[in-house]
Amino acid sequence: MLLAIDVGNTNIALGLYRGPDLVQDWRIRTDARMTADELALTMRGLLGRHANDVTGVSALSTVPAVLRELRVMLGRYYASVPRLIVGPGVRTGVPLLVDNPREVGADRVINTLAAHYLHETACVVVDFGTSTNIDVISAKGEFVGGVFAPGIEISVDALAARAAALRKVELVRPRSVIGKNTVECLQSGIMYGFPAQVDGLVRRIIDELERTTNPGEVTVIATGGLAPLVVEESETIVDHRPDLTLLGLRLVFERNNSR
């Protein structure tokens, strides 16, 4: 069984694959102070009865401190199985059509691989995480660039920290767009404002693609831990794939261990 590990700034997503099938997945909090031994103990606890069934590991990390411990952990606890950490030199099959390919995060490359595998069309991937990342993929599976915007949670935290009369609120839909109290005003701005921001950016991206590259059909995919909050309110997102990065990790592992 393949263990896929996606270390993000806020959460670590884990997925266990038997062949092409995702058997189970988990999400834990990212702690930059976590040691290799702590990471291994946590994962083995989640894997439970499958802990000794792992025959390969595919991983990425966008957090440098955790990446170091991840390398140590894999070398110490999974030395007997094929393992891969996505980074420079790893064959992904994704052309990076940007000014500096080394600036492109491993998660964005892997999401590109998975999105093209799923749809084989031009794609826009909206990853709702610590930041909201919008990645643009050509019909040939090329990564052509994207957009960064502040994420939902850090925007809420910043607003609560900088505005004395405002506070963090539960992220649920209010009774109406027009809030009747402070809590509902905040909830409306979050639950309807972020989908509107994404829809506006996606429409501009598609318009630009149509003017410059004639992309044909463009599929808009949502992923990331906060995607469920906004997917239903978006007018442009047509596919929600919570496991998009885990799927990409499976695909890149197979590409690099095909023999």
TrEMBL record:
Q: Name one GO cellular component term.
A: cytoplasm
Location of the active site: D107 (proton acceptor)
Instruction: Return the InterPro entries for the record.
Output: ATPase_NBD, Type_III_PanK
| This enzyme's EC code(s) | 2.7.1.33
Protein's pathway: Cofactor biosynthesis; coenzyme A biosynthesis; CoA from (R)-pantothenate: step 1/5
Record-level Gene Ontology MF annotations = ATP binding; metal ion binding; pantothenate kinase activity
Q: Which residues bind ATP?
A: D6, V7, G8, N9, T10, N11, I12, A13, T130
Q: Can you say where in the cell this protein is located? A: Cytoplasm
- Give residues annotated as binding substrate: G105, A106, D107, R108, T182
Q: Does the keyword Nuclease apply?
A: no
Where do the annotations place K(+) binding? D127
Q: How is the cofactor bound?
A: A monovalent cation. Ammonium or potassium.
Kinase listed as a keyword: yes
Pfam name, any one: Pan_kinase
Major localization listed first in the record, in broad terms: cytoplasm
Cofactor (UniProt): K(+); NH4(+)
EC class of this enzyme? transferase
Q: Which GO terms describe its biological process?
A: coenzyme A biosynthetic process
The alphabetical list of record keywords is:
ATP-binding, Coenzyme A biosynthesis, Cytoplasm, Kinase, Metal-binding, Nucleotide-binding, Potassium, Transferase
Function text: Catalyzes the phosphorylation of pantothenate (Pan), the first step in CoA biosynthesis.
Q: Known PANTHER family for this protein? A: TYPE III PANTOTHENATE KINASE
Q: Which family does it belong to?
A: Belongs to the type III pantothenate kinase family.
The subunit structure is: Homodimer.
The protein's name: Type III pantothenate kinase
State the species of origin: Actinophytocola xanthii
